[in-house]
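Stage 0 sporulation protein A homolog, pasting as requested.
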Amino acid sequence: MKKILTAEDDKEINRLICEYLSSQGYEMLSALNGLDAVRIVRENTDLSLLILDLMLPFQSGDMVLQKIREFSDIPVIVVSAKSETSSKIDLIRMGADDYITKPFDLDELLVRVEAVLRRYNRNSDKQSVSRILTFKNLTIDVTAGTAEVCGKTLSLTSKEFAILELMLGNPTKLWSKANIFQSVWGEDYLSDDNTVKVHMSNIRSKLKSLDSGSEYIETVWGMGYRLIN
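Structure tokens follow.
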């Protein structure tokens, strides 16, 4: 049974989410504030998913996401009344896996939960293959799910790791945004979706922070991305 944490300060909404997902076979935990959400994720290493409201007391949802990404790659679905594209992009940049706008239907939430878990499990299964990939000063241990640059730990979200694994596994290939999205997220790509662009920007920034003297990923305008040999 997969375990899910709902971090929502509205007690009635929290209760409804927990009861509904429990009826679908999930084990549910709940938090009513940001501090408890971080603590519960830290203490429960077997958690499969976090449903995270942004408007939490003591510590806001975006701060919770930042804290959690320091020690866990648990999938996160953000729940918010904000529907602006900029808000969604900022949260994806911070490591969110999906975003759902209030008010929402519980059936829609269930579909998103199942989709995120399916993608995460698929990526985890890929990482079970025993192999190490290297490119320049970057090393990825697929088995352990770890990455290093110049011998220093490279902190990646599960999607960032999957993108680098994909590219290092095919180092001469030019990858379109659609190729990357379909391979990593397992869904059809929408032409106006900035998800891949945001993740690529994050990966580049993280690589640059540990190896400022090397360039790893090149943007081929109108075509996609490839490793710089």
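Note for the archive: The chain has two domains: 3-125, 127-227.
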